[in-house]
Transcriptional regulator
Amino acid sequence: MNEMKDEQLTADPVYNALKSAIIAGELAPGEPLRQDEIARQHGVSKIPVREALLRLEVDGFVLFRKNKGAIVRELSAQEVLNLLDIREALECKALELAVPQMIDSDIAAAREIINSYGQKKTVEAWSALNLRFHQVLYEPCGNAPLLQMIDDLRARIGPVMRLLVTETTGLERPHAEHTAILEACIAHDTQKAVSLLRQHIQTTRKETAAKLIRRNT
């Protein structure tokens, strides 16, 4: 029993390090995860490494291929679209709860992000601003489990796919829609803000679906 507990404790830092690297895009979809190399990097045996990889497989971040070892799992087009459907439900609920709780500092933080868009010239910068804008809008909702679910969903989509979504949608449309959503929040018009957010996410999903279909044909 103690040996199993020790292995679990040893696997935890390996699991956390690999998960963080996958979420950050440091380990790309399809990249092989060689147990010997990982064990050497972490100074452990292959047993906790395999335990960590198996846990990551359960979480959907890793795929074991027969006789070929583990790789970073790549989401299918349908999985991405399904996650965007879930995003709509979670984020609209978060905004519904957040708007009545917003104070001047929340509005100022969101406006500062919007004003920064024109100063950025890369897809990576736009993607980061987009992510932060949505985070700032939802933080006042006061529902920690809901915010954690949204964070977990973003982690599942991953940085590679987030960049694809940003590249697909471009700058002008999201910027205009973000501005309209913020104006509704400033007016404390919860219904309008949620409606605009829902349209924003649905349009993004449609454009992403078209991009993924073209990419896979």
